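User: Is it possible to get a 3D structure for a protein together with its bound compound? The compound here is WT7. I've pasted both below.
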Amino acid sequence: MSNGQEAPVFYKPSPEIVANANAKSYEELARHASEDLPGFWAKQAEQFEWFQKWDTVLDESAAPFYKWFTGGKTNIVYNCLDRHVATWRRNKLALIWEGENGEVRTFSYHALNREVCKFANVLRSMGVKKGDRVTIYMGRVPELPIAMLACAKIGAIHSVVYGGFSVEALHGRLEDSQSNVAITCDGGYMNGKIVELKKIMDEALKRAATVEHVIVFKRTGHDVPMEAGRDYWYHDLMALPIARSAAGGNRCETEVMDAEDPLFMLYTSGTTGKPKAILHTHGGYMVGVATTLKWVFDLKEEDRWWCAADPGWVTGHSYIVYGPLLLGATSFMYEGAPTYPYPNRWWSMVEKYGINVLYTAPTAIRGLMRFGEAWPNRHDLSSLRLLGTVGEPINPEAWRWYHRVIGKERCPIMDTWWQTETGMFMITPLPVVDLKPGSATRPFPGVVADIVDDQGRPVATGEEGYLVLKRPWPAMLRTIYRDPDRYVQQYWTKYPGLYFTGDSARRDEDGYFWIIGRVDDVLKVSGYRLGTAEIESALVSHPAVAEAAAIGLPHEIKGNAIHTYVILKAGHEPSEALAEELKVHVGHELGPIARPEKINFVPQLPKTRSGKIMRRVLRARALGLPEGDVTTLEE
Ligand code: WT7
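Assistant: Yes, that's possible. Here is the predicted structure of the complex:
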């Protein structure tokens, strides 16, 4: 604390926050949900437009293939756009966007709906129909949400690939999703430089057979090759009569979807080298995402909300694109790097746009913290009312800095624990709840979480164990696309009937959850999720590498940094130059986020008798710990 006094155990919300909160009592909501889970969620679902009401709120008959709102017909885009343009909200700002170069674009609900309709007409005219997959690989421009919404509007399944991924990662996702259409940009701006999105797409497409058409949004205007008959400029298509409806005008009929029809797939890293396509649906996802955003971030009609994630991650899907639009909110989106051109960039935008609620990741907070308080202190941050964090455990030091320097000890911090798979916040405070720095507090109403040992028995208070979820929730993943066996195996087999999160945690005497970290071979690097197996297979694809192992070691800003151990093939010698070449190689295959911090050349790797690499032992050695002692939960 700034005054040198002992930090309080609890941070209590101000009476003002409590008086104005959308969700006034955690206990009451949690009680309602625990007494009647279907009734609780049905009440939230009733706030949306359904073309046809559901028959059953929760169908558990084919568990773990749970179904929500079965028999119900809706379309999430109908609730994001169509519904609002029929009210006064048509003239409210849906999206405020600032480019890294300072350019500003704004979209009212009317304008956003118009663009989505036009682009949906374009996609339809290209033959995209309900159930088809469309890969979106773009920078952080408004056309990214527009493309997602246009897909969903016509019932196509979008698969957004984060613009920071590179050739191999994109190629694998294009192939696995069997997309016929891909949408990209000529390039993106990041840190004053151009990210060569179109060139990476071209390389990835050399081996991806299903893609027939590529739509290219012009952002940078630099020269990129366009393949005649395959590649089309976005602005050319949008100017054609095909962007208008058959009846004329900019309208486009919204497809009627079953609640359980797929909305999108999003690839995430697991324990194998092959990323898995997490599948989400229209109905339950809509209800879960909107309810959590409304209660946790307490959005008000007049608020300006900024989720500083990338739309390419689930955070962006749920809380940049769908959640805010479902609530009829105004969302701010920024294209570039937080420190461009100076470390006050974010704070200057908070001031300029009067942001009320800011949601970001611990790694970003730590990254900005290191530039000192003078940067934020130059700006009027008094519009802020609430803050949020996600992606990895937040260390109390970063929590307190965020609370004091950014929130001026006035703004509660919502530390939201969730996953690509959960679709929505799962363990999270509400603004009315007392906070402890570093704890995501308690499960959202209706979410039943527990911490268990190897046999699935609840562990004692204060003890570390596996975090599991005991009841289904509406925004849960439905399956892994084209791989239902893997869905069952990954999430529901370790403890039958319980959802296995892959995280370890402990619970304190107040029932507060403290997330410790991943217990599978998944790393969180700057909040990004990477599989050790993906990094290892990228390394092994280099001609000099025989075998490789990747581990995460603590890093001040990134949380974890990737350290690798490499056995070279005969005829190759360790050198600084080769280490650098391997780092570049991994960056090229997977993307800059996967670039190893360090390459260690070793003669051998510690293995189990069955030949499995013991990453735990590598980590113990690197940290100078006794080899048996690092974590009791792994392997
Ligand atoms: C993993 C999920 C969900 C959006 C971003 C990440 C870790 C996430 C927290 C938090 C501690 C967290 C977990 C989880 N994680 N939020 N508030 N405190 N850890 O989504 O890429 O699917 O990663 O991120 O390890 O399992 P994701």
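Confidence is low (pLDDT under 50) at residues 630-635. The CA atoms of residues 365 and 402 lie 7 Å apart.
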